[in-house]
Design goal:
By secondary structure, the chain is an alpha/beta fold. It has helices at about 20-30, 45-50, 65-90, 110-120, 125-135, 155-170, 210-215, 280-290, 335-350; strands at about 1-5, 10-15, 35-40, 100-105, 125, 145, 170-175, 180-185, 190-195, 195-200, 205, 225-235, 245-250, 250-255, 260-265, 300-310, 315-320, 325-330.
Length: about 375
């Protein structure tokens, strides 16, 4: 059995090496804890790699205040996080503030009210201003909601930078290590059985994304986390062809600095099936070209699928298991793992280390009502 050396804040074991797991490891090691992180494959290869990287929930006014609280905290910290990682590792996550243009007929009043309540800058713009804001967008809408302050992050680069930094900080990463059984003795976490052996620690945090529900299903009060497939495509264009993140009818476009343009995504309840489909490829390309005709001149470079960790109303589970000492979760962020990641990691560390919480933690508890 492997047991790490002692640290000021004990030794913590984390299952899951996505952005949530690595941000959580970073928070804990910076606080003086010893951390071992295990992942069933290489770090950052599941939904952390597959997502779009918009640093805002889609239609943010439609979410619970608990999601807004985490998103707001993260949005305020992302620029410094990205720049710090670039300086530390030489890998630039490419935080880019190019705004979010949302076509949502009927939502204008609720969006503006939400913005006032939460002090989030947004405005309603006319059809003429839509064309000025994103000339490549062939929109026929009379109005749109414009959130100029919204940024994006290049999530595969963020995952690579996080991995490099936490290794420098002393986190022990065990890749290709599959968690098989969580051992509970007299109501307390004692060890984790994996395909490579047994691991013990003072606490276990499950940050396994879509797999979290399966890992905890034999425990009391398991979280309602299920996989939701999302497929995306990537166009290879020239820089500046499209300049704004744009969202309409749950389909969004994200232009990267180098001219790559992401378009997605589907929402499919297909269990753990991650295979792409020709139907989705054709549908996504057709919609993308109809909205941005300039894309007809450019090839689809990649098509992929990822599994999001779906949860009731997209409210994540962050905190200690109510019946098992030493067992925690930080998972269930659905489509918002990137934007909620920094705040979720900070809150998880606050709760585990008995620090003052960055936001009220009650809405994210295992047994909280999610609505």
């Amino acid at each position: 059995m492997n047991t790490a050396s002692s640290n000021d804040n004990g030794h913590i074991l984390i299952i899951g090496g996505g952005i949530i797991g690595m941000l959580t490891a970073r928070e804990l090691v910076l606080a003086g804890a010893g951390v071992t992180l295990v992942d069933q494959q290489q770090t950052g290869q599941e939904s952390s790699w597959a997502g779009g990287g918009i640093i805002s929930p889609l239609y943010p006014w439609r979410y619970a205040d608990s999601v807004t609280a985490l998103a707001t905290w993260s949005q305020a910290s992302y620029k410094n996080l990205s720049e710090g990682l670039a300086d530390s590792t030489g890998i630039d996550p490419e935080w880019t503030q190019n705004g979010l243009l949302i076509i949502a007929p009927g939502d204008t009043e609720s969006a503006i009210q939400w913005g006032k309540v939460h002090k989030q800058p947004l405005e309603s713009i006319s059809g003429e201003v839509i064309s000025q804001t994103e000339p490549a967008f062939a929109s026929t809408a009379d109005s749109a909601i414009w959130m100029a302050g919204v940024a994006q992050i290049r999530n595969p680069r963020l995952a690579k930078a996080l991995r490099a930094e936490i290794v420098k900080l002393g986190v022990n990463i065990m890749e290709f290590t599959q968690a098989r059984r969580i051992i509970i003795t007299q109501g307390k976490f004692t060890r984790l059985e994996t395909n490579t052996g047994k691991l013990s620690a003072d606490a276990l945090i499950v940050c396994a994304g879509a797999w979290t529900g399966e890992l905890l299903r034999n425990q009391p009060n398991p979280p309602e986390i299920t996989p939701v497939r999302g497929q995306m495509i990537l166009f290879k264009t020239d820089p500046g062809v499209i300049s704004r993140i744009t969202l309409e009818e749950d389909r969004y476009i994200i232009p990267r600095r180098d001219g790559r343009v992401l378009f997605g995504s589907t929402v499919e309840h297909t269990g753990f099936e991650k295979q792409t489909t020709q139907q989705a490829l054709e549908e996504l390309r057709e919609i993308a070209v109809s909205r941005f005709p300039v894309l007809s001149k450019y090839p689809v470079e990649k098509h992929w699928a990822g599994l999001r960790p779906g949860s009731p109303h997209g409210i994540p589970y962050i905190g200690r298991h109510p019946e098992v000492e030493g067992l925690y979760a930080n998972a269930g962020h659905f489509r918002n793992g990137v934007v909620l990641g920094p705040a979720s990691a900070a809150l998880m560390a606050d709760l585990l280390l008995d620090r003052e919480a960055i936001v009220p933690p009650a809405p994210y508890a295992f047994d909280a009502t999610r609505n």
